[in-house]
Amino acid sequence: MLQKLLTVFTKFKARPAVTTGENLYGQCVSQSRQVPFYTDYGVEDEIGARFELLCLHVILVLHVMKLDPAQSDHEQAKETSQALFDALLRALDDTMREQGVGDLSVAKKMKALGRVVYARLKAWDDLLSPQANAPERADYILKTVYARDEDDGAIESHDHNAALMAEYVEKALKTLSVSALLRGKTAWPELN
């Protein structure tokens, strides 16, 4: 009987693109937790900044995977991207539950958080286009990762750090490749 159950469960293994998307999510988490972001780039080690940094890394991978829609493995890229995005949403849901958010409130809070994630996707989609420039990216990074709005006084270290982060984003666009991502491999730029 146990052998039959094992046989049935092995037939329902996750599709390779789903497994790859989940692996890419893990690599995005790992990269966004690199210590230099918090020591050298001045990102606050608090939940909002960590969320923004994670979203940025996931969005970078999603953006690179959709760069060449004519590629032969376009469907695999779409499926992998969806699996990556789903892994992000599942992790956010899990985090809320771990923080003690009740089951009845999770759906409502996830809906609000989903709107934030989609807003980031849209904004970064525009900012990662070839027409966008580093100062525009740095400005958005100031508003999201560094949580500074236009009413805040000028904080030169944040301006400098946001410019460094914008350079990092530019480098990531060059080091990440569709073919490597579809094999579950990220190549993040060095943090300096």
UniProtKB/TrEMBL annotation:
Domain Ubiquinol-cytochrome c chaperone, first and last residues per copy: 40-177
Annotated InterPro entries: Ubiq_cyt_c_chap, Ubiqinol_cyt_c_chaperone_CPB3
Family assignment from sequence similarity: Belongs to the UPF0174 family. Belongs to the CBP3 family.
Protein name (record): Ubiquinol-cytochrome C chaperone family protein
Organism: Asticcacaulis machinosus
